[in-house]
Amino acid sequence: PVDPDDKHTCGFINNACGKLLCLAELDWNNPAYVAGIRDCSQGYIVMELSFPTFLYERYTANLDDLEAGLFKGRILLQAFKAVFTSPSSAKDVEGNGNGADIIENNRCARRAGWGLKVKKHVAQIIKMEKVTPRSIAYIACQVRFSLSSIMSWQTIDSDFDYILFWWSIMDFFE
User: pTM for the whole thing?
Assistant: First the structure.
């Protein structure tokens, strides 16, 4: 289990976190891959240029089409909604949508409020009208950090560079 108060229990040490952090091309269920990743063996070093499974719908990549389901992972969508709309809206994520309708769904929910006064969410405050590559990259970095075992934010986590990760996501959309 993951102890929310102890980051030492997160990262590749923890099977649940490790599976989400694992490169999409590798099978976390293969003990040889797990051992290789945990030991930082040649060929198993997790770097920023390959996307982790938490970015994929149902946390599984199609090895024949690595773009299929990318940026549709449930934890990614939940984090996006928690940061940009509200923590309670993150509970509504099914994990099988395309995620692009997050802001519109919240507009509809607001209109359906029958005149109830509702606080503005971050997306409204910053006048964010659509999901952007920058916002996706930002949340992906936040989720990656949350799943990792590093105690405080730093741009480099062992062999993983968050700045290059952010840019690799940006490059994907260009």
Answer: 0.81
